[in-house]
Design goal:
globular; alpha+beta; 4 helices; single chain; seven-stranded mixed beta sheet
Length: about 170
């Protein structure tokens, strides 16, 4: 008798996730324009990023795992929008899903957990920059109440060409 599929689990990211999170991110660095990083990272180089997302506060990291294998299927973060103090009530959010885990609702689970975690924080707006084209990401953000506010044209250069970034915002209060 086949076993019932087990639900994906979402939890805070921890230091033990660093290697898997780095490998997942490096896929997007090497293969896509979804991130504008152009050189892959070692786990040690990514450690400050991981440590900048504690279990509480406005800057969070949520990871989705397969409950059987504990494989990381994706992650979502909220990070500082800009460094200047007046931006402290704004965050930039992002989601990365493992390439073989797409179209399973993992991005939705991650954003749901992230925004639930942020609900008690002193935050006013969330922003998301989406390198174009990326219809799946735009749909995900719109499902969570983000609205399109504008596009930076040819703002990043990667793989020998320029890329646009569409910006979305969401009320958090």
């Amino acid at each position: 008798m086949p076993s019932e599929p087990t639900e994906v689990q979402v939890r805070p990211g921890v230091e033990g996730d660093l290697e898997a999170l780095t490998a997942l991110y490096n896929h997007y660095v090497r293969e896509t324009a979804i991130t504008f990083d152009t050189a892959i990272f070692t786990p040690e180089e990514r450690r400050p990023w991981l440590l900048s997302h504690p279990e509480d506060g406005p800057y969070r990291l949520r990871v989705a795992t397969d409950p059987d294998s504990q494989e990381i299927l994706g992650y979502a973060t909220s990070s500082p929008f800009r460094a200047k103090p007046a931006y402290a009530t704004s965050v930039e959010t992002t989601v990365y899903v493992a390439p073989d885990a797409g179209r399973r609702g993992i991005g939705t689970l991650l954003y749901k957990a992230l925004f639930e975690a942020l609900s008690g924080e002193d935050l006013h707006r969330a922003y998301a920059g989406i390198a174009q084209p990326n219809e799946a990401s735009a749909r995900l953000h719109e499902r969570f109440g983000f609205r399109y506010v504008g596009t930076y044209r040819e703002v990043g250069r990667k793989f020998g060409r320029y890329w646009d970034v569409a910006w979305y915002e969401k009320d958090l209060m």
